[in-house]
Specification:
With 174 residues, this protein is an alpha+beta fold. It contains three helices and ten strands, in the order ββαβαββββαβββ. The chain has two domains: 43 residues, no CATH class; 123 residues, Roll (2,3-Dihydroxybiphenyl 1,2-Dioxygenase, domain 1), CATH 3.10.180.10.
Amino acid sequence: MYPCRGASEAAILAHDASGKVFQSAGETHAIDAALQTRAARNFSMISHVHVGVTDFERAFAFYSGVMDALDYPLKFCERDRPWAGWMPTTAARPLFLIGPPHDGGIATPGKGQMVALLAPSQAAVDACYNAALAGGGRDDGPPGPRPHYHPHYYGAYFRDPDGNKICVCCHDPA
C-alpha cells in the first residue's frame, strides 16, 4: 500500500525501474535518472485504452475525425471483429482502441471514467473539440485554460456518441 501525500508536503513518491520506492526530496536525482532511462526506451505508463461502443461504424467515423485533428494515425481497422485502433506518430504505444465489449454485452459509459488524449498544441485541442462536436459528440467543457490543474494546462471535454467522457489537453505554454 502506498501512502497518499498532501500537495503541501515536499516528500516524493516514485519508483525506479527496479521497483525501489523513493520518498525523500534528497533522492530526486535517482528518480530523474530512472525517468530518463524510461524515456530513452520510450516507456509509457499506458499500453492501450479500449473504449466500448454500441455502433462501431458511427464510433469509427467519430473517432476518425477526433484522431485526425490530433494527427494520430489509424493503426488498424477490422470491421468484421469489429474494432479499430490509433497510435501516436512517435511510438508504437499507447494505443487508443474502440469496439464493443469483449464479452458481447452492451457498452455503457463508466461513472467517473475518462480518457484524456494529449494534443501537441492549444490549436489542436480546439480542432479536436470542434471535430468531436461536428461528428456527433456533446460538449462537456469547452476549450480553455484550466489553471487549477497547472499554469499551462489547456483542455476541452466532450462525450462521444455513446456517452464516454473524453478530454483532450495540452500541457505546453501557448
